Amino acid sequence: MAVPVAPAHEANHTSASKVDGVASPQEANHNTSQAAGDELERLLRTVADEHKTVIMTSVNEAWAAEGSLLDLLLESFRAGERIAHFEDHLLVVALDAGALERCRAVHPHCYLLPPLAGGKDLSAEKVFMSKDYLDLVWSKVRLQQRILELGYNFLFTDVDIMWFRNPFERMSVAAHMVTSSDFYFGDPYSPVNAPNTGFLYVRSSARMVGVFEAWQAARLSFPGKHEQQVFNEIKFELVDKRGLRVQFLDTVHNAGFCNNTRDFNTLYTMHANCCVGLAAKLHDLGNLMKEWRAYMGMDDAQRQRGPVRWKLCVRQDQGLCRQLVVCSEGGSVHLDVYPSRSRFVWRIYSLLKATAWMSPLSPPKAWLRSEVKRAYLGLASLDHSIARQWARFVRLQEGDTNTVFSKIHTAHQRQKNHIFNIRVGNQTVSIDEDMDAAAFEHFFCILGTLGAREFNINL
C-alpha cells in the first residue's frame, strides 16, 4: 500500500528536527535539498568499501513490492558464488515513498531520491520510452554524477539484473568506465561495441565528472532518447576529445536475454532485457534463479563435463523475450526468435554503421552496408515466419486441433484454395464439371500450337 509522499529530508533522515515557524517555498526547497544531500553523504560513507566504491540500484514502488525485482536481486547476492558480502555495500535508491518503506523492510541502506520538478509520480510501472520513463532514467544519471562529485566510485546495476559471480573480476583497472554490452564485437576497448548502461562502473575523477556533464547536456541534442541511446551517440566524441577509456564487458560473462549466452559455467550477471513488462521479467528471472540453485547443487565433475544450460519457461501470454523455451508436459520446444544467422548479419551491419560514425564509408563499404541490411531484413522476416510456425506447432501439441478456432481456420484455408466460378467468353460457369471441361478445352487449344505474331525477326 502506497503512503503519502513525504519531503525527502523527513523520509531520508527520520531524526531531523523541525524548524519553528513557516518557511518560504524557496527556503523549504533549499532545506530539503540540503538535508537530502547530507543524508546521501552519510549513506555513502556507511555503504562504501575500503576503495570508496558503492554498488547501487534504483527501484520504484512496483519494483520494490514483496516478491518483485528487489527481492530477486537480493536473493541473487545470497545465492551467488562468494558475493554475499556485496549486499553490505548496496545502496538502494527509492524513487518514491512507497519504495522507501518497502526497501527499509528488507535492506538497511535506502535513500529517497528528491522528487522531480512538478512532483511527478514515479511509483507505478513505467512504460519503456514514455516521458515518465525518460525522466526516471535521466534522474539516475544526475544522481550518479553527484556521487562522483563526492569522491565515490560506483557500480550501478539495474534491479532486473541477477548477480551470480563477482563482476569486478572482469573489469580492468585501466578503464575510467566499464559497461555491459548489447552487442560485443571482440575488442573490449573499441567504442564500436554497443553499450548497455544498465550495468555501469565509473571511477571518480574530475574527468568523469566532466563526462557526465557532457552526457546530460547532450540530452538536448537528442530529444526523446534515453540516457543509453544518447551515450551511444556521443561515445566516439568522448573517447576522442575527453580521452575516455571505456571497457565493454563481453556478453559471454555479463549476459542478457537479448544474447544467446546460456552457460552457468561462464556467467557472472544476467540482465532481463528483451523482456517487456514486469510480470514477464519476474517469471523469467524467477525460473532462472531456480535453475541457478540447481546448478549450485551439482558437483565439480558435473559442471566440468560441458556447458551447463538452463531453460527459460515462459507462459504463452508472456512470451515476450527473444530467447524462449516453451515448456509442456511432453518436453520443451526451443524458440529462438533471432537465430545465429540473423544475429551474425546484424552484428556486421552494426559494425559498418559504427564505422560510418567515425569516418565516411568508401563506396564499396557503403554498398556492403546496404546489402547487409537487406540480407538482415530478409532473414528477420524468415525468422519471424519460423517463430510463427513453431507457435502453431506448440498449439497443435497442446490439442488445439479440436477447438472451434482450428476448425474455422481449416475451413477458411479450403475456401481460399477453391475456385467458385470462371468466365468463358460472355458466360460465367460455376458447375464443377462445366468448369473442368472449359479449362481443358482452353489449355488443349493453346498448348503446343504456334500463335500468330505481329512482328518477326528475320535472321
Polypeptide structure, described:
It contains 14 helices and 14 strands. It has helices at 8-12, 25-47, 61-64, 69-79, 97-106, 131-149, 206-217, 227-242, 278-296, 300-304, 340-358, 363-397, 404-416, 432-446, and strands at 53-59, 90-94, 110-112, 153-157, 161-163, 177-183, 194-202, 246-248, 254-256, 269-271, 323-328, 331-336, 422-424, 427-429. Helix 7 packs across helix 8. The protein starts with 7 loop residues before the first helix and ends in a 13-residue tail after the last helix.
In short:
The protein is α/β, with parallel strands linked by helices and 459 residues long. It is built from 14 helices and 14 strands. It has helices at residues 8-12, 25-47, 61-64, 69-79, 97-106, 131-149, 206-217, 227-242, 278-296, 300-304, 340-358, 363-397, 404-416, 432-446; strands at 53-59, 90-94, 110-112, 153-157, 161-163, 177-183, 194-202, 246-248, 254-256, 269-271, 323-328, 331-336, 422-424, 427-429.
CATH fold topology of one domain: Spore Coat Polysaccharide Biosynthesis Protein SpsA, Chain A
Shape: elongated
| CATH uppermost class of one domain | Alpha Beta
C-alpha termini separation: 92 Å
Average pLDDT value? 78
Number of helices: 14
Low-confidence stretches: 1-10, 14-19, 313-340
Describe the main β-sheet briefly. Answer: 7 strands, mixed
Number of strands: 14
Q: Which bin fits the share of residues in helices?
A: 40-55%
Give the class from helix and strand content and strand pairing: alpha/beta
Strand content: 5-15%
The rounded Rg comes to 30 Å
Which second-level CATH architecture of one domain applies? Alpha-Beta Complex
Order of helices and strands: HHEHHEHEHEEEEHHEEEHHEEHHHEEH
Main-sheet strand order equals 3-2-1-4-7-6-8
